Amino acid sequence: KVLIDVPRSDLAEELVQSETKIQVLQDTLQQVLDRREEERQSRQLLELYLEALKTEDSILSKVAEREAAPRKEMDVVDTGTSSTGISATTALSSQVLAALKEKPAPELCLDSQDLELVLKEDAAALASALGWDKQKAGALQEACEQELSKRLKQVQTLHSLRSTSKGKKTLP
């Protein structure tokens, strides 16, 4: 850096070389410095990218663990008998039922596993457990199905991006 900053005429006189050769020398030294800076920036960018991948992997593994973990809080709620005399039961936890009743958009508040449980429920049993009509319960199940589908598409897209980024060995 010092050799680049020295005036050409002074450096030429000190090294007993022509100013043309000194200009070539200074240009070459500047190119070396520029290349080193680019390499340093590339390394930093690569480190950030690898750190982001590690963070993404840890988040995805936590999500996978949570979804794979058995649910211990499941209760069977007996809502009594329906007008046909058949007992209407639901395997949804009281927390899920409370969220379904109280939230304006409950499908956004539930995790994917709870959404799947809501979808597996019989619409009549769900309506009875929530104290709603069957049409409102069906609409809720449809909203849950759409949200779950959207989440699954996001996960697929994330996996696709990850596999694409792992396939590339060099940065552009």
UniProtKB/TrEMBL annotation:
InterPro entries: DFF-C, DNA_fragmentation_mid_dom. Residues 2-118 form the DNA fragmentation factor 45kDa middle domain. Transmembrane segments: none annotated. Residues 64-84 are annotated as: Disordered. Keywords: Coiled coil. Residues 64-75 have a biased composition (Basic and acidic residues). Gene3D superfamilies: C-terminal domain of DFF45/ICAD (DFF-C domain). It holds the Pfam family DFF-C. Residues 8-42 form a coiled coil. This is DFFA factor. It comes from Erpornis zantholeuca.
